[in-house]
Write a structure and sequence with these properties.
ClpP/crotonase-like_dom_sf, six-stranded mixed beta sheet, alpha/beta
Length: 405
């Protein structure tokens, strides 16, 4: 039996394995437009005092496009304004929660020179993430399956995140020449120690128990119990977060990461990833690997050396700045960074990374600049520079939203 398209994509994301996909394996991904007006991309369940939104692009691992996020925003706004609705839940249809933004569609738009639709996508999703982060009703994200990039962005800022034994989290943007965005510089920077730097730079994955352990998830449930939790959650006639928290706590399980998890390596992780520069981080890992031949150090080094050099430096600075910024400040900064990434004026790494990983599938991206030594401070600084007068900054309703929370 031939592996499914989603299985193939998962194998690339988390192993970097070079796979013979066969002809047109990702045809439906690349042919799906970033803008699709179909309401069927987000389904709705629930009655009474609860509503559940369901991401409905299972063949593409629920990769997000502009229309999906715009519909979510509209639904959430209506539910927030409706006094009869007490709580809102979000889940993915099929085997994934959401694999992030539809990067192949973005790639095609960039290739066509259609940057306006790319900008619209980032503006739409970042605006929704801020809306979720300031949502005035309890929100429960059921993170079953792959939860990556933008998928984490539209869930982690909410009130509750339920991970399962099938949850797989990652922010692998440096491996495609981009930067962890969709609010990642905010939530990763607030993880214990320097775990955020590790996840941002390497794109390494976490499972459900690891997400619970570090705080990315608020509860854990075996997948077998999820249907019952969904059913009972839908019957809770309340807008009180403490009631929902108690319910989820009673239904959830206590789990612990296995002994090989990075969570159990925080001492060496903090020692290496606390350094000021990517070069120093790599040097520290190399020294530790030379002393102990630690397989974790060796695999971490391998992932860092596969990533785009400019993306590594930009991402490290982004996480460090995120520690001292609010969610809205992080999103406004990330919008600037994302526009730099798609414009290609500094580098074409994003387009090249998607080409190599998902389009041509040769898995040999030619990064520009090609090494850390070729990355100048000016290049990094440009990602963080305010946009010009001809390019509007991301506008978020901070005064309106935060006055009520």
């Amino acid at each position: 039996m031939r592996p499914s398209k989603s299985a193939l994509l998962l194998r690339w994301i988390f192993s970097g394995e070079k796979i013979n996909y066969g002809p047109r394996r990702f045809a439906s991904l690349s042919s799906n437009p970033l803008i699709d007006d179909s309401d069927n991309l987000v389904l709705v369940e629930g009655k009474g005092s609860s509503r559940t939104a369901i991401l409905n692009r299972p063949s593409s691992l629920n990769a997000l496009n502009t229309s999906m996020v715009a519909r979510l925003h509209k639904l959430y706004k209506n539910w927030e304004d409706d006094p009869a609705v007490g709580s809102v839940a979000l889940k993915g249809g099929g085997r994934a929660f959401a694999a992030g933004g539809d990067i192949v569609a973005l790639y095609n738009l960039i290739k066509e020179g259609n940057l306006e639709e790319c900008k619209q996508f980032f503006w739409t999703i970042y605006s929704f993430i801020y809306f979720l982060g300031t949502y005035m009703k309890p929100h429960v994200a059921l993170l079953n399956g792959i939860t990556m990039g933008g998928g984490a962005g539209i869930s982690i800022p909410g009130t509750f995140r339920v991970a399962t034994d099938k949850t797989i989290f990652a922010t692998p943007e440096t491996l495609i020449g981009f930067h962890p965005d969709a609010g990642a510089s905010f939530y990763l920077s607030h993880l214990p120690g320097y775990l955020g730097e590790y996840l941002a730079l390497t794109g390494e994955k976490l499972n459900g128990s690891e997400m619970l352990s570090c705080g990315l998830a608020t509860q854990f449930s075996p997948i077998a119990k999820l249907p019952l939790i969904e059913e009972q959650l839908g019957k809770l006639a309340t807008d009180d977060p403490s009631v929902i928290e108690n319910f989820l706590g009673n239904q959830g399980d206590m789990v612990h990461p296995d002994q090989n998890s990075a969570i159990h390596r925080m001492k060496i992780l903090d020692k290496c990833f606390s350094h000021d520069t990517v070069e120093e981080i790599i040097e520290c890992l190399e020294m530790e690997a030379a002393k102990t031949n630690d397989t974790w150090c060796l695999s971490t080094l391998k992932r860092l050396k596969e990533a785009a050099p400019l993306s590594l430096k930009v991402s490290l600075r982004s996480i460090r700045e995120g520690r001292f910024q609010t969610l809205d400040q992080c999103l406004i900064r990330e919008y600037r960074m994302s526009l730099q990434g798609i414009h290609g004026q500094i580098t074409g790494d994003f387009r090249e990374g998607v080409r190599a990983k998902l389009v041509d599938k040769d898995f040999t991206p030619k990064w520009d600049p090609p090494s850390l030594g070729h990355v100048s401070e000016d290049m990094v600084d440009q990602y963080f520079t305010p946009l010009s007068a001809f390019e509007p900054e991301l506008e978020l309703p901070t005064n309106q939203r935060e006055a009520f929370i």
